[in-house]
Amino acid sequence: xxxxxxxxxxxxxxxxxxxxxxxxxxxxxxxxxxxxxxxxxxxxxxxxxxxxxxxxxxxxxxxxxxxxxxxxxxxxxxxxxxxxxxxxxxxxxxxxxxxxxxxxxxxxxxxxxxxxxxxxxxxxxxxxxxxxxxxxxxxxxxxxxxxxxxxxxxxxxxxxxxxxxxxxxxxxxxxxxxxxxxxxxxxxxxxxxxxxxxxxxxxxxxxxxxxxxxxxxxxxxxxxxxxxxxxxxxxxxxxxxxxxxxxxxxxxxxxxxxxxxxxxxxxxxxxxxxxxxxxxxxxxxxxxxxxxxxxxxxxxxxxxxxxxxxxxxxxxxxxxxxxxxxxxxxxxxxxxxxxxxxxxxxxxxxxxxxxxxxxxxxxxxxxxxxxxxxxxxxxxxxxxxxxxxxxxxxxxxxxxxxxxxxxxxxxxxxxxxxxxxxxxxxxxxxxxxxxxxxxxxxxxxxxxxxxxxxxxxxxxxxxxxxxxxxxxxxxxxxxxxxxxxxxxxxxxxxxxxxxxxxxxxxxxxxxxxxxxxxxxxxxxxxxxxxxxxxxxxxxxxxxxxxxxxxxxxxxx
Length: 556
Prior knowledge:
Layout: H1 4-7, E1 13-17, H2 32-46, E2 51-56, E3 64-67, E4 73-76, E5 87-97, E6 100-112, E7 118-125, H3 133-136, H4 147-167, E8 174-178, H5 184-191, H6 196-202, E9 203-206, E10 217-218, H7 220-226, H8 229-238, E11 245-246, H9 247-253, E12 257-260, H10 263-272, E13 278-280, H11 287-290, H12 293-302, H13 321-343, E14 353-357, H14 373-382, E15 386-390, H15 398-414, E16 419-422, H16 428-437, E17 440-443, H17 455-461, E18 465-468, H18 474-477, E19 484-486, H19 497-515, H20 517-534, H21 537-548
Parallel strand pairs: 1-2, 1-8, 2-7, 8-9, 9-12, 12-13, 14-15, 14-17, 15-16, 17-18, 18-19
Antiparallel strand pairs: 3-4, 5-6, 6-7, 10-11
Helix pairs in contact: 2-21, 4-5, 5-8, 12-13, 13-16, 13-20, 16-17, 17-20
């Protein structure tokens, strides 16, 4: 059994999340939500916050993506073994599911911050011999199965987290619910006898969803079949007029502090949930994790103390832009070589590298650049460039899979003008390569559907320049023409974004690369100096610690 005294002793805030990206080989994450949680884990360790993170083991992973010759995504399981990366705790609790008690235990993984502070992540696991085969699979496939499977998973997460942390003797003063998946945790506290006001004082809720359709909702009939009656009774006390089990609204109503993940998202969420008091903490990324090695060496030389305090990255503003360009070129060369080894394609190093990498789904518009192929080819003949694309579609997202297939068709039609390469298997490892070596990072959602986004922050830390529609974090980070560019403005019809994107490539972005490299290098430097400090995970966790957890004596 793991020594609880090492990393768990004194933990008073629990961060509960459906997924978390700790390391590439620990495949208990799918995308942005988990990657963000991983960065917050690293920042919590850097700041020596008294925290514990809780998630599901997700033994089967999310999706191992393969692409066939026609551009079809093939979904395969991507299993991993928690025992290779974590140690088991002896404590076992039970969670009521469909009239039976499902046994749950945890694996503990420990992360260490820059000053040696340690923070534990507990991975809840039902793959135990005392459980049925059906129940052993509940911590298998992340976001897999039907609504019944999802509700059972969320019961293991929420109810299991509350019961397990109590059983191992942790006195949790604050529970941070990272999205509505964990909403059964505060409901469990109410069901067990805590009054609603007490639960509200203890709970913090972060919503990442800018549309009502994105909320986790389950029919009452399913809730009553899967959970004991006293959970429905507790729910009716909290939301007496509800028409179903609304996990987002439940989490919000039982949290004394609720926040959106950007300033724009706060405004959108306030409209979605009238009468609710919603703050905002704009997402951030961990510079020490995402900066490429050569860029880290530059920061060590030019921004003393940046690993302990990301505010120090502002000092990069005084660095010779040529040194920034040199550091970026090392990561760029690494990306070019990786593309060659992965695909056999040899990229032209003289061409700028544009990257689009994110979940493949409709509102993110992965095919926006290809709306006018004739014009795109004309632009690329004048100013050649490379377009790297990566991203997985959810197994049930037919539209996302159609987009991947269409991208492969467009790539064939472009015939190297521009050179379009799709890189399968988007995850932490490939993300490091892309954000490190990209010259331009594309972000093309339909506003206001991107709550925040973080990939562009990672690119900026490496000197990449963002080209984005006006949404999410970019509205707070952009200094137009100085650290990146915006496609249109808040009043622009989204149907015009495709044409405006090509306008900006033809008239602004590509001419800057080919005709004003000194100016380009200066923009790279300014992107690091302005975005690095303001959009770091350390900054975000300091805000949570001060405003939501109300910690005193914060480090950094």
